[in-house]
From TrEMBL:
Protein name from the UniProt record: Rhodanese-like protein
Species: Azotobacter vinelandii (strain DJ / ATCC BAA-1303)
Pfam families xref list: Rhodanese (PF00581)
Signal peptide residue numbers: none
Superkingdom field: Bacteria
C-alpha cells in the first residue's frame, strides 16, 4: 500500500512554500468535471508519457488523487514509483474526500490561469469594449486594429471580422509591424475572457500609447450579440525577424520584468540549478513553434508564451518550481515571466537567451513496455470475419463515436483489463499512438498481453481493406466517455445557452477561491499612462 495524505495535510502542503506536484490521475473528462484548484491533469492513460515532462525531478514531493482514493490511484502510484519518483502520496478519499472535508472542487480546465485573468481585470481595471460597440466602430470606419490573442489553429475556427491573429506571447514583439499610428485603437480578443484581458493588459503594462481594450467575452460575446463571425481566416502577424521598434520594445519589456521582480540569470546559474537535487527546474522556450523547430537550447521544452500564461498547468506540473524562460530577442521571455511572477510562480529569464550557450541534459523516463507486434488492416479483416479476435478501439471516445470498425468495443487504459476479463480470444488494439496501446497492454494479465497486436487507427485504411464501419450513434454513452469533457463543449457550435454558461463559469471563479489561493495572485497595478 502507498502512503496516504489527508485533505487537511494536503491543504497545508499546498501553501507551505515548498515544491509540490499534485496530479489528478483520472481521465480528462473526469478531471474537467470537478478537480482540486491546484490539481494538474495527468491521465492514467498517458501517465508515463507525461509525468517526467510535468515533474522532471524524481525527488519532488508528489501527491496524487482519483475519485475516491481507490484502485486507480494505487495503480498510478505503482507506475510513478517505477519511473523513479520516491515521495508519492495518495489523497485519502480522493476528490470526493477533498469535498467531504469542506474544500472546493472546480469544473473546467486551466482554472488557476483563468482565475488569475479575472483577478487581473479587477485589480488593473483593464478597459473593455462590448461586441456591439466594437461592431459600431467598425461600421463607422474608425481606425481600429483587432488582434486575436489565440494560437493560429484556434483563430482559424472562428474570429472577429477583420481580426489578425497575433498570439498574446507575440504581442510585445510584433506590435511595431502591426500598427504605426498611436491614435489607432487596439482591441484584443480571444474566445472568452482570459486572453482578451491578459493581451490588453500586456500592452498597457508595456506603456503602449494607443487606446487599448479587451473585447468583452471574446468571440462568444460577439456570437451572443447576434453578430457574424468569420471562419477559416488566415490573417496573421508578419513573420519579420526584426520587427519595427525592436529596441524600444525590448526596453519596455525589461522595465516591466523588473517591476514584476523577474531576474535575468546567467547560464552558469541555471546549469547549477539543474544539478540541484532538491528543486525542480523548467527551462522553457517561449518563441513560436516554427522558431523552436528550427533550433533551441539542449534540454529546453517548447511553451509558446501566450499559452504558457493561459494554461500554465499544461507545461509546469510542480507548484513552487523554478521556471526559466528564454527567447531570441529579449522581449517575449521578460513579458511572459512578468505574468508568471504575478500569477505566483518563481519565474526568471535566461540572460542571452538563445545565444547563452546553455545546454542541459534532459531526464529520460525509465520504463519498460511490452514489445507488441502489429497487424495490418487486411489481416484484421480476415480475423474479424472469422470471429477469431476481440477488438478494442483506444482512440478518443468522440473519434469512436464518429466512425469505428463494426464489432470494435471502445476502451481506455484504466478500463481495458476489466473489459477484457475472461476473454480467451487474441486481443487487437486500435490506437492513434502505438505508445498508448503499449501502455494499455501493461494492464492486462501476461497471458492476454502475449496475444495482443496493435492495429493502425485510420478509417481510410480500414475502408480500403474492406472492413465494415459504423458511423455516428451515441455509443459509448456520455457517462462512459471519461476522456471527454462535456462541460459546455458546444459553446462554439451555435449553442447560446452553453456560451452563457461558460462565461458565467469564468466570471464566478474568483468567488470559489479561498483567501490563500487569492493571495497567491499579485497583479501589477497599471501605471499612469497620461
Amino acid at each position: 500500500m502507498s502512503q496516504t495524505i489527508t485533505p487537511q495535510q494536503l491543504q497545508q502542503w499546498l501553501h507551505d512554500g515548498r515544491e509540490i506536484a499534485l496530479f489528478d490521475v483520472r481521465e480528462h473528462g473526469q478531471y474537467g468535471a470537478a478537480h482540486l484548484f491546484y490539481g494538474v491533469s495527468l491521465p492514467y492513460s498517458r501517465l508515463e508519457l507525461d509525468a517526467v515532462r510535468l515533474a522532471p525531478n524524481p525527488a519532488v514531493r508528489l501527491a496524487i488523487y482519483d475519485e475516491t482514493g481507490g484502485e486507480l490511484a494505487e495503480r498510478a502510484a505503482v507506475r510513478l514509483r517505477a519511473l523513479g519518483y520516491r515521495r508519492v502520496h495518495i489523497l485519502d478519499g480522493g476528490a470526493q474526500g477533498w469535498r467531504a472535508a469542506g474544500f472546493e472542487l472546480f469544473a473546467g480546465v486551466n482554472v488557476p490561469s483563468k482565475a488569475f485573468g479575472e483577478r487581473v481585470e479587477l485589480a488593473c481595471a483593464t478597459p473593455h469594449i462590448s461586441a456591439p460597440e466594437l461592431a459600431a466602430r467598425q461600421a463607422r470606419g474608425e481606425p481600429l486594429l483587432v488582434l486575436d490573442g489565440r494560437p493560429f489553429e484556434e483563430y482559424r475556427k472562428m474570429n472577429i471580422p477583420g481580426a489578425i491573429c497575433c498570439p498574446n506571447g507575440e504581442l510585445g514583439y510584433r506590435l511595431g509591424d502591426l500598427v504605426a499610428d498611436e491614435r489607432t485603437t487596439i482591441v484584443i480578443n480571444c474566445a472568452g475572457r482570459t486572453r482578451s484581458i491578459i493581451g490588453a493588459q500586456t500592452l498597457i503594462n508595456l506603456g503602449v500609447k494607443n487606446p487599448v481594450y479587451a473585447l468583452e467575452n471574446g468571440t462568444q460575446g460577439w456570437f451572443l450579440a447576434d453578430l457574424p463571425l468569420e471562419h477559416g481566416s488566415t490573417r496573421r502577424y508578419p513573420e519579420s525577424t526584426e520587427p519595427a521598434g525592436l529596441a524600444e520594445r525590448r526596453e519596455a519589456a525589461q522595465r516591466l520584468a523588473a517591476r514584476a521582480g523577474v531576474e535575468a540569470l546567467a547560464a552558469q546559474q541555471v546549469a547549477a540549478w539543474a544539478d540541484d537535487p532538491e528543486r525542480s527546474l523548467f527551462l522553457l522556450d517561449v518563441r513560436s513553434a516554427e522558431e523552436f523547430a528550427a533550433g533551441s537550447l539542449a534540454g529546453a521544452r517548447h511553451a509558446p508564451g501566450g499559452q504558457l500564461i493561459q494554461a500554465t498547468d499544461q507545461y509546469v506540473g510542480v507548484r513552487g518550481a523554478r521556471i526559466v524562460l528564454f527567447d531570441a530577442e529579449g522581449i517575449r521571455a521578460p513579458i511572459v515571466a512578468s505574468w508568471l511572477r504575478q500569477a505566483g510562480h518563481d519565474a526568471h529569464v535566461l540572460a542571452g537567451g538563445l545565444d547563452s550557450g546553455l545546454a542541459l541534459a534532459g531526464r529520460v523516463p525509465a520504463f519498460e513496455l511490452p514489445a507488441l507486434a502489429e497487424a495490418d488492416a487486411a489481416t484484421l479483416a480476415d480475423e474479424l470475419a472469422g470471429d477469431a479476435v476481440r477488438l478494442f478501439d483506444l482512440r478518443p471516445s468522440m473519434a469512436y463515436r464518429a466512425v469505428h470498425i463494426k464489432g470494435a468495443d471502445w476502451s481506455i487504459r484504466p478500463l481495458l483489463a476489466a473489459a477484457a476479463a475472461g476473454e480467451t480470444r487474441p486481443l487487437r488494439l486500435l490506437a492513434d499512438d502505438p505508445w498508448l496501446a503499449r501502455l494499455a497492454a501493461l494492464e492486462l494479465p501476461e497471458a492476454q498481453r502475449e496475444t495482443v497486436r496493435i492495429c493502425r487507427a485510420d478509417p481510410a485504411v480500414w475502408r480500403a481493406a474492406g472492413l465494415a464501419l459504423e458511423e455516428g450513434g451515441g455509443q459509448p454513452p456520455d457517462a462512459e466517455c471519461i476522456d471527454f469533457l462535456f462541460f459546455v463543449h458546444d459553446r462554439h457550435a451555435g449553442n447560446k445557452a452553453a456560451a452563457r454558461q461558460y462565461l458565467a463559469w469564468e466570471l464566478g471563479l474568483l468567488a470559489q477561491l479561498d483567501a490563500r489561493e487569492l493571495a497567491a495572485f499579485r497583479p501589477l497595478v497599471a501605471e499612469d499612462r497620461s
